Model the fold of this input.
Amino acid sequence: MEFDAIKIEVENLTLSYGKRVVFENLSFDIFPRSITALVGPSGIGKSSFLKILNQMIREEEGLHVEGKVLLHNKGLSVDILKLKECELPSLRKKVLYVAQHPDLLPLSIYDNVAFGLRLQGIGKNDINNRIEMSLRDVFLWDEVKERLHVKADILSGGQQQRLILARALAMRPDVLLLDEPTASLNEELSLKIEDLLISLKQKMTIVMISHFKEQVKRVADVIFEMRLPS
Amino acid sequence: MHKIFQKIIIFLFYFFAFVAFIALSVFFIFIFYKGVNAFSIKLIFDDTPPLDALMLQARVFNGIFNAIVGSFFVVFVSIILALPLGFLSSIYVACYASKNVRFWMGFLCELLSSMPSIVIGLFGLSVTIFLHKNFFAELYPSLLISACSLAILVIPYIIKMTESSLCQIPFSIKNVGLNLGASKTQNLFFVQLPYVSKEILGGIILATGRAVEDTAVIMMTGAVAMAGIPSSIFQKYEALPFFIYHISSEYSSKEQINQGFGAAILLLGVSLFLFATAFALRKIISKRSGFGI
Done:
């Protein structure tokens, strides 16, 4: 599967956990090279929605998804809910989820970013370039360039959050799914990351969750509010 | 009142820990005292020149050399048989099996690991008799039968240890490879297995220790006294735990029972060696930074 400027069409999407319906009949479009922000109270299924978009939801037990999520790209449409298991790696290389809590491997800073690149069979020189570029993008390069080969878990929470964002950017995805990307950052860094996201949308489609209303207003092209059933 | 109760509880913790410590210390001091006094080169090789015995140019008649070699081979073959079966089936159970299959495999492993080893020995013997009568007239209890029976004994340990360590990987780490575009197999080999390699190794070494020390299985399936060093896996053999059992049940002199203590300290030494190996390998794995990719 090759993705580029991807449009995502969500049709009657329902997520349930056992008998509990988390959300139902969601229908909306996510436009290519735009930033769509999901807002709403905790527990309403925003993170699960992001995980549906790259099918990481399949790794969680007991969740049931119905409806359609169509990826439109170069005239082709694919319903990602119907993808076979063997097609998921291709999807996830292009539609990347960045978790709210840093999910770092117990490896060095360098190896954490290089991991996904090595999976793609990218050469060492290219890996080194991409690591430096992505760490610069998230304003982490100057802080870690002298200790790239030390364990990543020594980094602070904010540094770890930027590291997993760098890891995703190094993969050069077409769709970036961000789950509260600035939750552990101070105001100055948050603003820098917001600027980064605005510049990134020239290259990719971004879907993000944020609890900061001002941030959503600043960066989002489309705001989708999820509400509890009245 | 509440404070007194708390103090009594804490006293009981200290007391029982102390009792356990004393009991273990007495055991180790006793074995060590008896064993060290009996331990000598003569205990292992008797009057046979050690080099000749090691080169298999002369047979050791009254030492425990044959038992050491026999134990080594039977445990080696049993681990070779048990490792792929236990390791691969535990990966299937942990990563691919449905809830039902996981439940039944877990139940069977619990059942098998709590089964007395004499029952497994009896099973090995019964299967040998059946095969001997119906298919292979030349098949008798032997090193191979013992190794197969020991493999049945240790497979549940390997499965339980590997499966539980795979299941205990934190959710975020378990799936991070998948999130970065790895296939399930890549995620298993590049993330999950390296993450639990220390625990898996620990399980294998524990299983080896269990196979080394078991007596009931081997005494019913091929271990005998005075068999010498087997030249094939279809022959009878000597083994350290069987030697200890045999000599302690039929000794006629103080020297003979002392031989048993000498063999016991050697078994303790093997356990210590396995423990040290596990520790050293864990250290080596911890120092390695890459995840094999």
